Automatic annotation (TrEMBL):
InterPro entries: PAP (IPR039633), PAP/fibrillin_dom (IPR006843). It comes from Rosa chinensis (China rose). Residues 2-103, 120-145 form the Plastid lipid-associated protein/fibrillin conserved domain. The keyword Transit peptide applies. It comes from the Eukaryota. It is found in: Plastid. This is Putative plastid lipid-associated protein/fibrillin. Its main location: plastid. GO terms for cellular component: plastid. Belongs to the PAP/fibrillin family. Keywords: Plastid, Transit peptide.
Amino acid sequence: MKSEIEGLVKQLESQNPTPDPTVNLEKVGGCWKLVYSTITSLVSRRTKLGLRDFISLGDFYQNIDIAKGKAVNVIKFDVRGLNLFNGRLTIVASFKKASKSLMNVFRKNYDILLGIFNPDGWLEITYVDDTMRIGRDDKGNIFVLERSEENLI
């Protein structure tokens, strides 16, 4: 199933209607809901206190404010057995766009640059249209998001 989804993602990326999303940032801005990811650390890693046994993670959202250069990531959760106890974890990150040539240099020399600059990580938007966004991070993870009307801020 995972390889089928990744194959479909590659097909979509090859048909990207917005070849350079950083030039068309208005397509990237707004609220997005995560619908698929290859990242496993969010669901498989246990905390030292065993909180995964009690906390159930819900939807993941990302609200991108182009004007402020901020991405607000929201993870909804609830505590199993306590229907009245739920909440959300909000993480605010700043971003700046990198030129295509800079990204190519960075990709080719990632290990060397990592040692020099020690970046927090990067995400390349590989597909975006009016309703869907696909990205790949520096660790090779794929993220598929759909546009959402959720008001998180």
